[in-house]
Design brief:
mainly beta; seven-stranded mixed sheet; four-stranded antiparallel sheet; about 45% strand; globular
Length: about 130
């Protein structure tokens, strides 16, 4: 049972930056998809970014060029560096993990229901 814990959420002004962190309870980064999802009030959960054990990365179109996903294997920590934040980036951000399959990262990012392990979320609010 992988346990995930996010941190780093905050309220920031439009154009600001934040870095989210997700610490895993065990070493996951050599065989898991690790991803960030977000959910705004009244909306479905959507994929933000995902990375696999080989370093393949996919981003949602809405964040590409502004967000960067990375991981520190030694610290069992996944990061999401967010810059150029917009009010539409507001939401609860979740870290998720799933054992890797043959699926490509761009596909798995669209499949939140395929992820077995989730953190409790961290709130990001962007105000204008």
């Amino acid at each position: 049972q992988v346990k995930l814990k996010e941190s780093g959420g905050d309220s920031v002004q439009t154009g600001g930056s934040l870095r989210l962190s997700c610490v895993a309870s065990e070493h996951t980064y050599d065989r898991y998809f690790m991803a960030w999802f977000r959910q705004a009030p009244g909306k479905e959960r959507e994929g933000v970014a995902v990375i696999d054990s080989l370093g393949h990365i996919a981003y949602a179109d809405s964040v590409r060029g502004r967000f960067t996903i990375s991981q520190d294997n030694a610290q069992n920590t996944l990061y999401l560096q967010m810059s150029g934040l917009k009010p539409e980036d507001t939401g609860m951000y979740y870290c998720a993990a799933e054992e890797e399959t043959v699926a490509v990262v761009s596909y798995i990012l669209t499949r939140p229901d395929d992820f077995s392990y989730w953190g409790q979320g961290t709130q990001v609010t962007v105000y204008s």
